Amino acid sequence: MAVLRQDIHQNIQKLDKMYESDPSVYSNVVEILKKEAREGIARKPSSCSRALVWLTRSMDFTVNLLEKLEKDVAQSLEQVVEDAYITTLKPWHGWISSAAYKVALKLIPERKAFIKLLIAEEEDYDMLKEEMRELISLLLPLLDDIHSILRSFHLDKLKAK
Questions:
Q1: Which CATH fold would you assign to the domain 1-153?
Q2: Are 32 and 18 in contact, with CB atoms under 8 Å apart?
Q3: Which InterPro entries match (predicted)?
Q4: CB 65: neighbour CB atoms within 10 A?
Q5: What share of the chain is helix, strand, coil (3-state, %, to 5)?
Q6: Opening angle at CA 138, ends 143 and 148, nearest 5
Q7: What is the mean pLDDT of the chain?
Q8: How is 96-138 classified by DSSP, letter by letter?
Q9: Buried b (16+ CB within 10 A) or exposed e, 43-61
Q10: Is the distance from CB of 28 to CB of 15 less than 8 angstroms?
């Protein structure tokens, strides 16, 4: 998951850097997307638009993963991750990214060990499941809005970096 975490972090940094360049102008992502669309750079690999696309897809993956973890306790973590990947990221990845994913899949811990990492002190699995449901319920409407914005800028079909 370190690769995913690093990718998310880099995409957030890219958007944050643009925001910090002029907070009054770039107060929200729509303004950033408008600027890059006007300049014709929205589809470039180094654009904030592309960073938002991949940040959104990473969050789609995370939500899908949490949903599957919460619902199907019998499935191995490797299978949960693979299902979430196939549903959310694989359609957008080229062969290099897909190959890197297959290598990363071999490094996934056992489900029990992963769950143990997620559970806070003095918390049990039922509490964790409730927190996952709550996080999912907060993220889904936000992700729906972001997808709608990306569609309006014709950025929803971008392939791998």
A1: Glycolipid transfer protein, GLTP (1.10.3520)
A2: yes
A3: GLTP_sf, Glycolipid_transfer_prot_dom
A4: 21
A5: 75, 0, 25
A6: 20
A7: 92
A8: HHHHHHHHHHTTPPPHHHHHHHHSPTT--HHHHHHHHHHHHHH
A9: eeeebbbbbbbbbbbbbbb
A10: no
What is the token pair recorded at 13? 């940094």
Question: What's the distance, Cα to Cα, between the start and end of the chain in Å?
Answer: 18
Residue 110 is encoded by which pair of tokens?
Answer: 């056992």
- pLDDT tens-digit profile of 23-81? 999 999 999 999 999 999 999 999 999 999 999 999 999 999 999 999 988 899 999 99
What residue segments make up the domains of the chain, in order of their start?
A: 1-153
- For the record, the structure tokens of 46 come out as 């180094």
Question: Residue 105: pLDDT band by 50, 70, 90 thresholds?
Answer: confident
